[in-house]
């Protein structure tokens, strides 16, 4: 079903199964690795209808929404979204593309795979078997004079270099990187072999994100937390309304988990003059992070703490997702 070679048992293989269930288009990603005692399979389910959200619906606070909105309306530069696999990076970028999509803008994406068809946007599916990689696709896309380019992921130095050249020649480039926090994305690009002066001149901002589970509204209850639990997430008791935080008791509606649905927490690092100066000096991610905090950046943990205070999620959930 995933069009894999059924005779090959010694190599890792990747494929996908497009399927329709209850009138919904579901994409099943298949990944197979060979282990000592046979093959091991992981299936990832993607509901194509649930990936497209507006920017107001993805968990951004009003301030973050305003910041991101300003960034995606810039004429050029690179906006990076970072986080581990399955942290909602593509969903955030799709929300941003939908926001700026208009008939007079030429938007082209290169993805692996194309997760959702967007009206009025040219989307390319990479296919390494025939030599269509991110880097090769990106080279050809530049001849189509796009205003905005989305590169699914910067995996190697070649892709990074072409993306940076594109940003230098007046294009707005969106892409993703696998790093733990926003500051590490800068050092990651430099580690790939990109010159620090190029990184500092084209990267406009880096957004790090994680998904957190939302408390089930049916069985939500308030309780008084212990000091240790609050300290772990960086909340002072005075910040809590009535000294209470919330959790889900567990009910049939949420399959006794206490959670229903997910939202995202964000860390937005704007590349200011101070941070550019640090990048040029090849500073480590800790120094870059420290400078960003001095300039008012809220970390993932700060954003998570705000969601706890607002009663959206639990202390345990934020501690789990933002462990140092």
Summarize the structure.
The protein is α/β, with parallel strands linked by helices. It is built from eleven helices and twelve strands. The mean pLDDT is 93.
Structure description:
With 324 residues, the protein is α/β, with parallel strands linked by helices. Helix content is 31%, strand content 27%. The chain has eleven helices and twelve strands. The strands form three sheets. A seven-stranded mixed β-sheet has the order 6-5-7-8-4-9-12, sandwiched between helices. Strands 1-2-3 form a three-stranded antiparallel β-sheet, with no helix packed on it. Strands 10-11 form a two-stranded antiparallel ribbon. The model has no long low-confidence stretch (mean pLDDT 93).
Please give the structural blueprint.
Layout lengths: L12 E9 L2 E12 L2 E10 L14 H11 L4 E6 L6 H12 L6 E5 L10 E4 L8 H8 L6 E4 L5 H12 L3 E6 L4 H10 L4 H7 E13 L4 E4 L3 H7 L11 E4 L10 E12 L2 H8 L4 H10 L5 H10 L5 H7 L3
Helix pairs in contact: 3-4, 5-9, 6-8, 7-11, 8-9
Distance between the termini: 41 Å
Question: What fraction of residues sit in β-strands?
Answer: 25-35%
Number of strands: 12
Assign a percent range to the helix content.
25-40%
Strand order of the largest sheet: 6-5-7-8-4-9-12
Structural class: alpha/beta
Radius of gyration: 21 Å
From the spread of the alpha carbons, the general shape counts as globular
Q: Treating each run of at least 4 consecutive H or I residues as one helix, how many helices?
A: 11
| Major sheet details | 7 strands, mixed
- Which spans of ≥5 residues are poorly predicted at pLDDT below 50? none
Query: Mean pLDDT, as a whole number?
Result: 93
